[in-house]
C-alpha cells in the first residue's frame, strides 16, 4: 500500500534529519557553544519546523514557532496549544492526514494557502507529536 510506504519514507527522513540535528547539537555542546542538549522531542520539533519552512512555497514561508531561540532553550507556552481550539482542530487534523497519507510537501502547500500563523503553529506542534509517537512506536526513540 502506497500510503504505508509514504509514511515509512517520511518517518525514515525525519529519523535521519533528527540524527543529523542531534550530531550538530552534540558538536555545539562539545565546542562549548551550548551548555545542554535539548530533549529529542524538542530537537524533533525544530527539525519538523525546518522541514515545514523548507517545503513552503517561495514567498509564503511560514514562521517557525520559537525561531531565533538559542539551541537548548525552550519556552513553555502560557496558553493551551492552539490545536486545542475547536476552529483549528479539524483543519490541523486534515493537514496531518494529508502529510501522512500523501506527503508533507502537499500538506505544507495547503498550509501556505491558509496563510494563518495560528494554524501553522498548531500544525507544527501536532505534526511533531505525531512523528514523535511514530518514532517511539517503532523503537527509534526512547520515551522522555
Would you mind describing this structure in some detail?
This protein has 144 residues and is mostly helical. Helices cover 65% and strands 0% of the residues. It has 5 helices and no strands. Helix 1 packs across helix 2. The longest helix has 29 residues. It is globular and about 40 Å long.
**Shape annotation:** globular
Strand content: under 5%
Largest sheet: none
Task: Give the terminus-to-terminus CA distance.
Answer: 32 Å
Q: Tell me the domain tally.
A: 1
Mean pLDDT: 82
Which series of helices and strands comes N to C?
A: HHHHH
Computed over alpha carbons, the radius of gyration is: 15 Å
DSSP helical segment count = 5
Secondary structural class: mainly alpha
Percent in helix: 55-70%
Low-confidence stretches: 61-78
Q: Could you tell me the number of beta strands?
A: 0
Amino acid at each position: 500500500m502506497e500510503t504505508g510506504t509514504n509514511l515509512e519514507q517520511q518517518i525514515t527522513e525525519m529519523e535521519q534529519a533528527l540524527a543529523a540535528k542531534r550530531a550538530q547539537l552534540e558538536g555545539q555542546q562539545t565546542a562549548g557553544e551550548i551548555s545542554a542538549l535539548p530533549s529529542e522531542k524538542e530537537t524533533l520539533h525544530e527539525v519538523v519546523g525546518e522541514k515545514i519552512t523548507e517545503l513552503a512555497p517561495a514567498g509564503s514561508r511560514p514562521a517557525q514557532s520559537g525561531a531565533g531561540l538559542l539551541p537548548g532553550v525552550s519556552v513553555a507556552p502560557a496558553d493551551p496549544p492552539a490545536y486545542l481550539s475547536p476552529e483549528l482542530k479539524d483543519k490541523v487534523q486534515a493537514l496531518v492526514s494529508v502529510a501522512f497519507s500523501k506527503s508533507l510537501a502537499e500538506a505544507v502547500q495547503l498550509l501556505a494557502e491558509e496563510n494563518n500563523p495560528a494554524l501553522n503553529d498548531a500544525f507544527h506542534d501536532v505534526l511533531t507529536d505525531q512523528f514523535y509517537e511514530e518514532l517511539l512506536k517503532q523503537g527509534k526513540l526512547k520515551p522522555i
